[in-house]
Design goal:
The structure holds two protein chains of two kinds.
Chain A (H helix, E strand, L loop, with lengths): L8 E6 L3 H5 L8 E5 L9 H14 L5 E5 L8 H9 L5 E4 L5 H18 L7 E6 L2 H5 L1 H5 L5 E6 L1 H7 L17 H14 L2 E4 L8 H14 L3 E4 L5 H8 L3 H20 L4 E3 L2 E3 L1 H16 L9
Parallel strand pairs in A: 1-2, 1-8, 2-3, 3-4, 4-5, 5-6, 6-7, 7-8
Antiparallel strand pairs in A: 9-10
Chain B lengths: L7 E3 L7 E7 L6 E6 L3 H18 L5 E7 L4 H15 L3
Parallel strand pairs in B: 3-4
Antiparallel strand pairs in B: 1-2, 2-4
Chain lengths: 302, 91
């Protein structure tokens, strides 16, 4: 169940910086993306590609490694795929996804590369970032365009810019409301397609309070994780996305009474005077699965 | 097989990187590597060999290389040389 992998944080590392590439996995992010797109200048696209290829090919990483390629409509996109697929990244991250056709095109190229290099078919996944209204309108089509699709992400800055507004910080209540609809639609599309939803980066690394509020908000909206550009943000994001002891304890009790009711074949279940129905059981299972994946819960406990 | 036709550069002077300047040389001149490295005594010959090996693997027998190394890993050195080769040849 690779799609259910824990991805609370997806951290970017600039592809033309050997120091960042070689230490990419030491900060504890669940997933790292080596970027040859926006963080690399036009003059250095070729060198970043070579550097990322050699890093993935030669270094052992303890976490999942994806590569963000330039869009296939740019002069670099197809070359990025050709060069970087040969190193076998765990996934390709496409920026500015707008149609299912783009995803099917990339899927075909990956399929060819998997055959050519003898990789397990289907082992390289795709994550797509939606950054425009057109991409949002086609979000479900994108999310369901290939079985390789494992997550939809939203590029907040680009999306806000394409709406002719800006990405605001707001406060705990108004937090980034310009993205409210878009974020929710990303979650709807991802859930309908059965894949994960990853939120945009929060760029002010000194403002930890607003970061925490924003992570809380996107968690409530249904996101599985958040992108980040600085290792300093990882702990805060993980803290919010990892179930608390209280949540774990409650989930455990919910499943306890549920199982008991099943063996007794009783229809209605109550816990602490509240009726427990199926959505609550599913949520409890998800809390424990997340807690297990995050290493804060083992089945024998509690 | 690459053929060097111009001088080209790749990499940076940042820590953990290497700056490589690669230039064509007369046939038969061989590969000459001039290296500046903070760990010259420990790793100098290894880095020079790696540079020469990477060039030879691309079919280049004659070249002049000026390299300023700042604690780069082997995979970084190899990547920078390969980029320099592409930039210096007509690929």
């Amino acid at each position: 169940m690779a799609k259910e992998k824990l991805r609370r944080t997806v951290m970017y590392a600039a592809g033309n910086n050997p120091g960042l590439l070689q230490n990419a996995d030491i900060y504890g992010a669940d997933s790292v993306i080596f970027d040859v797109e926006d963080s690399v200048s036009v003059m250095e696209k070729d060198s970043a590609r070579d550097l990322v290829y050699h890093a993935i090919k030669n270094l052992q990483y303890s976490c999942e490694i994806g590569v963000r390629i330039n869009h296939i409509s740019t002069p670099w996109g197809y070359d990025d795929l050709e060069c970087l697929l040969a190193a076998k990244p765990d996934y390709i991250r496409l920026p500015k996804g707008e149609t299912g056709d783009e995803i099917r095109d990339i899927d075909n190229i990956i399929t060819k590369a998997e055959k050519e290099y003898g990789y397990e078919p289907g082992s390289i996944q795709i994550m797509v970032s939606v950054e425009t209204p057109k991409g949002l309108r086609n979000a479900y089509e994108i999310a369901s365009a290939s079985p390789r699709m494992m997550a939809l992400a939203i590029g907040g800055e680009d999306f806000s810019a394409s709406l002719k507004t800006e990405k605001t910080k707001g406060n705990a209540i108004t937090a980034g409301r310009e993205l409210f609809v878009a974020r929710s639609m990303i979650v709807f599309a991802a859930r309908e397609a059965g894949i994960q939803a990853i939120d945009s980066v929060f760029s002010d690394i000194r403002d930890e309070e607003t970061l925490r509020n924003e992570v809380q908000l996107v968690k409530e909206l249904g996101f599985d994780g958040k992108s980040c550009v600085n290792p300093r943000q990882i702990d805060i994001i993980h803290e919010v996305f990892t179930p608390s002891e209280k949540e774990i304890h409650y989930a455990h009790r919910v499943l306890g009474v549920f199982e008991e009711a099943q063996t007794k074949k009783s229809g209605v279940i109550a816990l602490d005077g509240k009726m427990i129905d199926m959505p609550m059981v599913i949520r409890a299972q998800r809390v424990l699965a997340l807690a297990t994946a995050a290493g804060v819960y083992r089945k024998e406990e509690a | 097989m690459s053929k060097l036709v111009r001088t080209a550069q790749a990499g940076t002077m940042e820590s953990t990187d290497i700056l490589v300047v690669l230039a064509p040389a007369e046939a038969g001149a061989g590969i000459q590597v001039e290296l500046v490295s903070p760990t010259m005594r420990q790793h100098g010959s290894h880095i020079k060999q790696l540079i020469a090996k990477t060039l030879q693997a691309a079919g280049i027998a004659d070249a002049v290389v000026h390299a300023t190394e700042k604690g780069a890993m082997d995979c970084t050195i190899e990547a920078r040389i390969k980029t320099a080769i592409k930039r210096a040849s007509n690929e």
